[in-house]
Input
Amino acid sequence: MRTLLILASLMLAAGAAWAQEPGGLAAQGQKVFEDNCADCHRLNGQGLPGTFPALDKDPFVQGDPSPVIATVLNGRKGNLGQMPAWKDKLDDRQIAAVISYIRQAWSNRAPAVTPAMVSEARKARK
Ligand code: HEC
Output
């Protein structure tokens, strides 16, 4: 019985570690992306030419994480129109997950972003 309990808690700990791990975060981000971003940027990350930018093969998305985090938190008005702000709709973990996802989905290969990085970026704005 005791060994079983120890085994069960070990498995729980392993599960929690997996959820913290970047691969796990990006996987969660896929759902956040499908629910919130795919209407504009499309499921395949190709966007809509002249209207919504493609995120696949995008150097901005795969570059320095700070401006990517700022864009998703605060939105951006540019040549193509208005990218909505997500800071009041998604929490740090969801934003880290969705950015990790777009940095690793399709043909993109960039390091994940952590919830701590998003939380720092929020504070920096205040
Ligand atoms: C209502 C449509 C819409 C939705 C929904 C939307 N975006 Fe955007 N997004 C845009 C537009 C338009 C731009 C370009 C703004 C500009 O012209 O600078 C943009 C730009 C971006 C950029 C910058 C791309 C670059 O190369 O500069 C990123 C990253 C991004 N969006 C991520 C996301 C994520 C992540 C979500 C979901 C949480 C999301 N967007 C949801 C419309 C949208």
